[in-house]
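Progress note, sequence design subtask.
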């Protein structure tokens, strides 16, 4: 009987982690030809809930806080990390600063910070590392004036690799935080 208790607790914990962190699905990227001030309605019939929300958000994109200087940095939506690290690199500060400026100028903007790892390590360790990476980006943005209610940190661990390879080049691509605008993304046209 005690053996069952000891086996059930880790299984229950893993189940809770999986349903709490991995149940969030990223919105599909959809582009539309509408502009924020157009009176055109966007037909979202037949799209999934996430895709419909993303389509509506793109139709409501904002140019406020977008400058010629920060446009290229706002287009970058991925921050990469070194092996077994949640430390931001110097090259990512300008990207995150541009996103911080945009988010401060657009209080209705919301962004999901989705942490990922490479395939090495246990699932539990990688879920925690992905969360530390997402929280590291979140901390930087909050320190630079972004309201915490505009940010959501989520970890996918090693469950959603960008590159399915099993070498250093693939692992380097997979160690990342994706910045996914869920409401009022930057208008970069």
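Output:
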């Amino acid at each position: 009987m005690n053996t069952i208790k000891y086996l059930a607790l880790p299984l229950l914990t893993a189940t809770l982690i999986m349903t709490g962190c991995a149940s969030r699905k990223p919105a599909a990227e959809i582009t539309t030809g509408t502009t924020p001030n157009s009176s055109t309605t966007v037909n979202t019939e037949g799209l999934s809930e996430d895709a419909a929300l993303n389509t509506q958000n793109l139709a409501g994109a904002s140019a406020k806080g977008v400058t010629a200087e920060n446009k290229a940095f706002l287009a970058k939506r991925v921050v990469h990390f070194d092996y077994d690290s949640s430390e931001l690199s110097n090259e990512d500060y300008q990207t995150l600063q541009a996103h911080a400026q945009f988010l401060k100028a657009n209080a209705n903007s919301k962004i999901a910070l989705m942490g990922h790892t490479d395939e090495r390590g246990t699932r539990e360790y990688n879920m925690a590392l992905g969360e530390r990476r997402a929280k590291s980006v979140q901390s930087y943005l909050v320190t630079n004036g972004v309201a915490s209610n505009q940010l959501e940190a989520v970890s996918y661990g090693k469950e959603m690799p960008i590159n399915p390879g099993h070498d250093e080049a693939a692992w380097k691509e997979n160690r990342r935080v994706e910045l996914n605008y869920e409401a009022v993304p930057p208008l970069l046209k």
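Residues 68 and 188 are 9 Å apart (CA to CA). Work on this subtask will continue into the next period as scheduled.
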